[in-house]
Design a protein that fits this description.
Length: about 220
């Protein structure tokens, strides 16, 4: 198993040339306080979309956020050199982009995550924005492909069926798997459910393995 894609499940293809033009990523371990850092940023995003603050407080917030950004700026690193996205024990693998969900299962037969859509994922009337649901599925399928031992594949299409309104700030589960393989084409399916087993959305995706050099 290459260090490039090594995870705690040891899943994934180990020949770099099979991963298209992807660079070799060596997972970067998060420090003990990294999860708190990302959670603080998520809280800030929750508040940014759910407050109505006076202009003078806006001015002060801008100044403080800019000061924080100035503190972080010298620590910029190239893609793959940040802990963000590589720490499978953290919500959203430690990435602010990804849904802050955690793995309940990750194996060759599928991947299951549990978590909540946050306030900043709200699309209207306490429902999750449909685009964030597609993001959840898309990232899940990346991990499904990896956990099933296939080389990196990119999403050809995602077909999302929004079956019921998906609530924010409520524990939910999503589970997906590779259903069928046809050469480079991996047909995947997944369902998003509440804890009573009601399907909120389901998704079918075509994941396509990359040819050598494909970005
Ligand atoms: C340590 C902790 C954890 C870390 C662990 C990391 C895990 C590992 C992480 C990596 C994670 C990456 C996950 C990325 C997930 C995205 O990248 S999502 C980004 C959105 N997707 C994209 O940007 C893809 C853009 N598209 C492309 O790059 C190119 O279309 C592709 C996918 C490379 C395919 O191009 P191509 O090689 O020219 O293939 P092409 O001949 O067109 O198609 C191949 C076959 O698929 C079919 N096909 C292609 N598109 C479609 C379509 N839309 N509908 C139907 N059929 C289609 C073709 O008809 C053809 O079928 P056959 O004729 O072979 O039967």
């Amino acid at each position: 198993m290459s260090e490039q894609l090594q995870t705690d499940t040891n899943a994934g293809d180990d020949v770099y040339e099979h991963h298209g033009g992807f660079p070799m990523f060596t997972p970067v371990k998060a420090g003990p306080n990294y999860a708190d850092f990302v959670e603080s940023l998520r809280r800030l995003q929750d508040l940014a979309v759910s407050t109505h603050i006076p202009d003078d407080v806006v001015d002060e917030a801008i100044a403080r956020i800019d000061a924080l950004s100035d503190m972080l700026e010298p620590h910029r690193v190239p893609e793959g050199k940040s802990p963000a996205g590589f720490n499978t024990h953290l919500p959203g693998r430690g990435s602010l982009l990804l849904l802050p969900w955690q793995y309940e299962k990750r194996g060759a037969d599928g991947v299951r995550l549990r978590g909540k859509f946050r306030m900043f994922h709200r699309g209207g009337n306490r429902a999750a924005h449909g685009g964030t649901i597609a993001l959840l599925f898309d990232d899940l399928f990346g991990m499904v492909v990896h956990a099933s031992g296939h080389p990196i594949a990119r999403t050809g299409y995602l077909h999302v069926n929004y079956r019921n309104v998906t609530p924010i700030e409520t524990d939910l589960v999503v589970e997906g798997r590779v259903d069928r393989v046809d050469g480079r084409k991996l047909m995947c399916t997944a369902e998003l459910e509440d804890l009573d087993g009601n399907i909120l959305a389901d998704c079918e995706a075509l994941m396509i393995q990359l040819l050598p050099g494909q970005p």
